[in-house]
Amino acid sequence: MRQLCLWMICLFSFNAYSISDQYTLRTEIFFCKYSEGSNYDDVVKYEKKYEKFLRQNGLKYSKAILTPVIAGETDYDFVLWGSWPNGEEMYREYGAYLNDYDNTNENPSICNSNFAVINTAARHLRIPQEEYDNIQFVEFANCKFTEEASFN
What is the pTM of this model? Predict the structure, then answer.
């Protein structure tokens, strides 16, 4: 009986350890339209300036510009998806943006809708194949068209 109890404790503590292997991150999502006369290239140029600011200040923030391919009728042209590894880094980046970043007037887009998602679990991709449809993780890919391909 004692061995059975010990075995059960070990089993549950292993399970707790494996669950704690999943990490949390803070995420913000903006739904944006191009300002009049602006386009995707202007947004990339603006975000590259911000990336330089992040690096100069040692800030841990990552951002992706997502362009909908199949989205139906939307009231946005693109999505900005930003993430921090933890709340402390989120606080540092917000403070630096509000206090030290002075290129905010150059923004080539208008972002009317935004969402902040805090304490979300980010699942590793080593999950079993049969669980992929149940978990519904998101994968982003940085792709380029071949010479023969286009959206049109």
Answer: 0.63
| Structure tokens, 3 | 């061995």
Q: Any residues with CB less than 8 A from the CB of 102 and at least 6 apart, and which? A: none
d(CA 12, CA 97): 44
Tens-place pLDDT, residues 62-72: 888 988 876 67
If phi > 0 it is left, if psi is from -120 to 50 it is alpha, else beta; for residue 53 that is alpha
Q: Look at residue 145 and tell me if it is in a domain.
A: no
Strands laid side by side in the 109-122 sheet: 62-66, 78-84, 23-34, 109-122
pLDDT tens, 113-124? 888 776 555 444
CATH number at residue 108: 3.30.70.100
